[in-house]
Write a structure and sequence with these properties.
This protein is an alpha/beta fold and 373 residues long. The protein has 13 helices and 13 strands. It has a domain of 243 residues: 3-Layer(aba) Sandwich (Rossmann fold), CATH 3.40.50.720. Helix content is 42%, strand content 13%. It is globular. The chain binds nicotinamide-adenine-dinucleotide (NAD). It comes from Xenopus laevis.
Length: 373
């Protein structure tokens, strides 16, 4: 797979060793000059570097994954096509390339990132680049580089240039010792994946930069996201997307999690809406910087039954992947998102029935259009 090849190449570059056998960091060493921004004791300080009446200038990193293209579409509708720049290390398909500004950006390249932010007068940074849970476990050095070193670059750039920064976290930021049903915003977080560890690190570093340097850091813990027009990037909740594709293509679905594995989930439109809302929320409404958001919670068996209401012939078998199952068993079964609902009015639109109808309608109409051509 091209993505995997690219990522493997980056991993090799990251761990190149000189003749002495020492590990060399390819990241530039730098210090942060925050002089204008240091207001450490004022928790209500926020770095709004654009006039509130103007449109923000947005950069989305890792924009070619499951979520970035949809978010760019939503933000472009609101702020104008040229005010939202998608970036990634992969080559965009024609449909993305011709729909608005796209730029190459490797988040491990600090100078290149800074140049993009400066030259394009970026005011909001949406940081989507990451290696997800299952892919991360398969390549820990690369996950550590992209998810942790990459985040450090993003934090420094955002702080130096007074950006509003959004970094998504995940249900994977919790672990087996967290309360699982429901999981509140504040509790023990001892995840057992590099993905989870890197996301707890991101939450803590973002909050630290907020309190220490006034960085306008905003973070939502997304549940598993389900989308029809984009493929998931190697997470533990991917089965909940794959079931729809397989149901329509073959009428048979092999699930890699046990039938009773309950996880929090959300339709992509709700996820993107929440991201926009928290970015636009007045700073005074945010009592925290990292919020759980949720829409529904179901098991593979429950999802299959809902799909079978529309496609009675769908056959579901279970072939459990031990690694994904262990990850899922350590994650929240349900998310308590009452703080998001209270503080900035979070409200989901899609429940499981609505999700299933929407996914099947979309994929069926896509198949009919394909057959007609
Ligand atoms: N999709 C979900 O269900 C879900 C759930 C919770 C949180 N999240 C978070 O949301 C964000 C977006 O998720 P997604 O599903 O779109 O991920 P994805 O895996 O589909 O996409 C991630 C993108 O990051 C890019 N990337 C990898 N290394 C990079 C580098 N060095 N520089 C720049 N880009 C690089 C990849 O090319 C890819 O396009 C991630 O941070 C993820 O942790 C996603």
């Amino acid at each position: 797979m091209p993505v995997v090849r690219t990522l493997t190449r980056v991993a090799k570059q990251m761990t190149l060793s000189p003749a002495c056998g020492c590990q060399v960091s390819v990241m530039p060493i730098r210090s942060i000059g925050f002089s204008p921004r240091q207001v450490p004791s004022d928790a209500s300080f926020h770095s709004v570097s654009f006039s509130e009446t103007d449109h923000p200038r947005v950069l989305i990193t890792g924009g070619l994954g499951q979520l970035g293209v949809g978010l760019a579409k939503l933000l472009r509708k609101r702020y104008g096509k040229n005010n939202v720049i998608l970036s990634d290390i992969r080559k965009p398909p024609d449909s993305v390339f011709y729909s608005g500004p796209f730029i190459y950006s490797d988040i491990l390249d600090y100078k290149n990132l800074r140049e993009i932010v400066v030259n394009n007068r970026i005011t909001w940074l949406i940081h989507y680049s990451a290696l997800l849970s299952a892919v991360g476990e398969a390549n820990v050095p690369l996950a550590r580089a992209v998810n942790i070193t990459g985040l450090h670059n993003i934090l420094d750039i955002a702080a130096e240039h007074g950006l509003r920064l959004f970094v998504p976290s995940t249900i994977g930021a919790f672990g087996p010792t967290s309360p699982r049903n429901p999981t509140p915003d504040l509790c023990v977080q001892r995840p057992r994946t590099i993905y989870g560890v890197s996301k707890v690190h991101a939450e803590l570093m973002g909050e630290y930069y907020h309190y220490r340097y006034g960085l306008d850091f905003r973070c939502l813990r997304y549940p598993g996201i389900i989308s029809a027009d984009s493929q998931p990037g190697g997470g533990t909740t991917d089965y909940a997307v794959q079931i729809f594709h397989d149901a329509i293509k073959t009428g048979r679905f092999t699930c890699n999690l046990k039938p009773d594995t309950r996880l929090p989930m959300m339709y992509i439109d709700d996820c993107l809406k929440a991201t926009l809302e928290v970015m636009e929320a007045p700073a005074s409404s945010l009592t925290m910087r990292t919020y759980n958001i949720n829409a529904m919670s179901f098991t593979p068996e429950e999802l299959a039954q809902e799909v079978q209401k529309h496609m009675t012939e769908l056959e579901v078998v279970y072939d459990v992947d031990a690694i994904r199952q262990a990850i899922a068993d350590s994650w929240p079964m349900n998310f308590d998102d009452s703080n998001a609902r209270k503080d900035w009015g979070w409200k989901h639109d899609f429940d499981m029935a609505e999700l299933v109808t929407t996914m099947l309608n979309y994929l069926n109409s896509e198949r009919l259009a394909f057959q007609a051509n």
